[in-house]
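[Automated response] Your request has been received and processed.

Submitted sequence:
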Amino acid sequence: MRVIRSVKGMQQLARRWSRASSRIGFVPTMGYLHPGHLSLVRRARRLVGASGKVVVSIYVNPTQFGPQEDFSRYPRDLKRDSRMCRAAGVDVLFFPPDEQMYLRQSAQAHSTYIVEEGVSQGMEGASRPTHFRGVATVVAKLFNIVQPEFAVFGAKDYQQAAVIQRMVRDLNFPVRVVVAPTHREKDGLAMSSRNKYLEGPLREQATVLWRAIQEAKRVIAPGTPVPASRIRSAVIKLVRREPDAQLDYVEFFDPDSLAPMKQVRAGAHMALAVFIGKTRLIDNARLT
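Generated structure:
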């Protein structure tokens, strides 16, 4: 496995692979990898085959964090991540520095951003107003650097994946976006790098996100619409039972358009964000 830090070096290698007709699969991450990330790597390998190339990027992107968020303390461990990638059969670990991803000189500072104005509205877009601008911009940059045929994202970040899919469609990126299932711990908690923050009783309380999803599924009756307000009230009540949990949002929406639903039927999608202590966690699922 090669570790590449240079944007130019990664682009040059990607062009060589393209000339050799090697298919490129790409898994963009912010590092501190867990088994969920490795499942995306395995999916990328299946897509490109044994003769293809799999690239994993690790970049904690500053433009997708708000001023009061956890950018400075986001968990980082490059040596650990490198070992995991090597064991998973990754061909290249791309680890670019900030100064190559975003020019900071005052006269030539980075000034171009991508803003998606449809599926980015509401939920994460409402709670973190500049988040998806940062996500779309950095993913577009990474696509131009790595030049993948396939890019694999996790379904835990459902709205993020929808934003990337819309960007790829609208801006004609020659990339197929694949969304792989959420990986969970045995107790249902969605795997996340931020789970590292959860200590002591907070770890048990964090399962309230998965329990809220199960409660919503229980309320839904096949063929009979249920008012979203009724399910939301049940979720609020459940979250409030946990002493260190605070609900940010819970929404019910069409899985394709992400349009909010006032009457929820089986097959609708649910997403929620909950603070467990100071740690903000998200989760989502199809209500079937």
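Summary generated for your ticket: The mean pLDDT is 96. The first helix runs from residue 7 to 19.
If you did not submit this request, please reply to this message.
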